[in-house]
Write a structure and sequence with these properties.
This is LPS export ABC transporter periplasmic protein LptC. Helices cover 20% and strands 44% of the residues. The protein is an alpha+beta fold. It has two domains: 45 residues; 140 residues, lipopolysaccharide transport protein A fold (Sandwich), CATH 2.60.450.10. The longest helix has 35 residues.
């Protein structure tokens, strides 16, 4: 009798465990899901520190690049940290921290850099302003405050006085321009105009 009572007790325990254990497992799973879904906004990783309202008011593009070829076969590439679209008052697209490279068919390379730039409404010319530098593989390094560069042909002109160093020495001038030769010959000309001063430095 004692053995039968023990077996009955064991059977009842097993029956209860069959009910209790699945319920306990469900309870644990529910607890895990509830805990995992609790997200602290303070712990969330911000993906961008951007003022959305400001972006809507003043749309802009980050790190854009422009590349093209002029009619005379020169390759032109422009890069900027940031650009903004043209405005309703007729001002063209603007840019900040601009770098440009002009590679002409004769093998010369000219690098330009400036604090800012404005593109003409027709998209054929860009004006660089603020700490403009002009560095040519022909040996001329130039500094000015503003210059314009055509995008459809090789034509770069300063609109403010320039200071330059080159193979012949130090040069100051009212204006400078880099254009394709107008006599039909191959090559390009770098010309200084206005009140030009040259401090000649003979080669050592």
């Amino acid at each position: 009798m004692a053995r039968r009572a023990a077996l009955d007790g064991w059977s009842r325990l097993v029956a209860w465990l069959k009910v209790l254990l699945p319920l306990l497992a469900l309870g644990l799973l529910s607890t895990l899901f509830l805990v995992s879904n609790r997200v602290d906004p303070e712990d969330a990783i911000p993906y961008a520190q951007v003022d959305v309202e400001e972006r809507l008011r003043e749309p802009r593009m980050t790190a854009p690049t422009y590349a093209g070829t002029t009619r005379d076969g020169a390759a032109l590439e422009l890069r900027a940290d940031e650009t903004r679209p043209a405005t309703a008052d007729g001002q063209g697209q603007t840019a900040k921290k601009v770098n440009a490279r002009l590679s002409t068919p004769d093998g010369a390379v000219t690098d330009l850099a400036a604090d800012a730039a404005v593109m003409a409404p027709d998209g054929n010319e860009v004006t660089l302003t603020g700490n403009v530098t002009f560095n040519s593989s022909t040996g001329y390094d130039l500094v000015t405050e503003a210059l314009t560069a055509r995008l459809d042909e090789t034509a770069i002109r300063s609109t403010t006085p320039v200071r330059a160093t080159g193979p012949v020495g130090q040069i100051t001038a009212d204006r400078m321009e880099l254009t394709q030769r107008g006599d039909g010959g191959a090559g390009y000309l770098l010309v200084f105009n206005g009140s030009v001063k040259l401090v000649f430095q003979p080669a050592k």
